[in-house]
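Tutorial handout. Part one gives the primary structure; part two gives the three-dimensional structure as tokens.
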Amino acid sequence: MAESNQPKNSGELENLREILFGNQARATDDRLNQLEDNLQTLHRTFTDALNKQSAAQREATAATEEGLKKQLNSQANLAQTNHQALEDRINQLRAETKRQLEDIQATFTQELENLRSNLIEQIRRTQNESRQRDDDLRQELLTVSSWLDNKLTPRKDLGQLLMTLGQQLQDDDTSASDSPSSE
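Part two.
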């Protein structure tokens, strides 16, 4: 019974409200319904705008990401190309330096060989000149020695003669001293 009273009371309550408030309650209900519709419309509009903005932002982010990927790939390719070019240049410089060092070594070796040959030739000439001078000095010494021997022989003879002469003078002196005393 209480349940059947409830719907009956609701209807009566509505009737009382209609009597008391009348048009004003309907206007307020209409206004609230209109505000609710407007709020739902604004909510849909903002949601759509937010979804569009979010989609646009995703597209812009994707485009920026794609651009950055391309730029990064381009820079990586450029770096790889530069790296390869540097390696090629280093290899070229290494080969050129090696060739120059080999040329310098060959030149230096040739100059050392020439210097060695020149020194050997100078030593040989100096040895030959020394031998020639030694031979010349020996010959000169032999000549001087022979000359001195020739000169010494007459001197020896002269010395012998002087000694003989001295002996004779002494003998004469002693014989002269002996002769006056005998007188």
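Part three, for discussion. The radius of gyration is 73 Å. The helical segments are 2-20, 23-182.
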